[in-house]
Amino acid sequence: MRTRQFESFVRERCRSGSLTFPEALGLFDHLLHFRDPAPSIITFNFLFTSLVRMKDVSRHYATVLSLFNQLPRPRGISPDVCTYSICIDCCARVNRLGLAFALLGRLLKDRLRAKPIVFTPLLKGLCRDNRITEAADMVFDKMPKLGCAPNLISYAALIKGYFSAEKTIFATELLHKMITQRGEF
């Protein structure tokens, strides 16, 4: 089977919702053997997403991070913003924010443009750890400096964090700002 045909097969298996953990690992290994042309990172993203959506208890976050580290970058299989977003989310869900921020650094080092979807798990993790000031700094300072305008989901994560930390004044001020400037969010 050729690379593109196999990629179509992998994507269909992922879309089916019936992909098993052992099958996903086998498909990943098989994808690594294709050389000319190399498989698209999009197909790997399908696999990673399927692994984290599997219904069993562990959701396989650690497995996704391990597979991410096995991607053969010298063969042209380089992570894209979606790949990094999946992995950053995995880190945040297992309370490894340090690793999540390291992945954000790699994304930027790879000269990829960060999007709000990359920051959302970081914001949720910071808020969950009651690091609200850092989350607010990310929304109001770091994201704009990186050319990434916060979106509605970014603000919602911060508002939820404010409420969880019983900083209702900040939450209501931000909510009021969003309402009065709704065309800008």
Automatic annotation (TrEMBL):
Q: Which UniProt keywords apply?
A: Repeat, Transit peptide
Q: Mind telling me which InterPro entries this protein's record contains?
A: PPR_rpt, TPR-like_helical_dom_sf
> A Gene Ontology MF term for this entry?
mRNA binding
**What Gene3D superfamilies would the database entry show?**
Tetratricopeptide repeat domain (1.25.40.10)
| Stretches forming PPR repeats | 115-150
Which domain of life does the protein's organism represent? Eukaryota
A Pfam family:
PPR_2
Q: Which NCBIfam families did the record assign?
A: PPR
Spell out the PANTHER family in the cross-references. ATPASE EXPRESSION PROTEIN 3 (PTHR47932), PENTACOTRIPEPTIDE-REPEAT REGION OF PRORP DOMAIN-CONTAINING PROTEIN (PTHR47932:SF12)
Supply the name of the protein: Pentatricopeptide repeat-containing protein
